[in-house]
Amino acid sequence: MGGLGLLAVGLSNLFVAPGCEGLTGPECKLVEDATREVGRTQALGGGALTALGASLFALFRPRPPPAGPEDA
Predict the structure, then answer these.
(1) CA distances, 56 to each of 3, 52, 53 (Å)
(2) Is the dihedral of CA 39, 45, 49, 52 positive or negative?
(3) Residue 41, number of CB atoms within 10 A of its CB
(4) Per-domain residue ranges for the chain?
């Protein structure tokens, strides 16, 4: 669940521009660049955590017992 949350926040930071009210042009550019880079890192980390969680679920899920000859 945490991986999905981190992935969502990262994608939000990648594609949604932060507000630049009260900032000068260079300050706004700096905030946009920093937010985009942090979002990229968050998206990669969230995707990796989600993939790890899915693989652990697939590895440790309960399996049905193997079919064998039935006792009569």
Answers:
(1) 13, 6, 5
(2) positive
(3) 12
(4) 24-61
CB atoms within 10 A of CB 36: 14
At 39, list the tokens.
């979002």
How many whole angstroms from its chain centre is CA 55? 15
Query: Hey, how many other C-beta atoms are within 10 angstroms of the C-beta on 13?
Result: 20
- From first to last of its 72 residues, the chain has per-residue pLDDT tens of 888 899 999 999 889 888 889 989 899 999 999 999 999 999 999 999 999 999 999 898 888 878 777 755
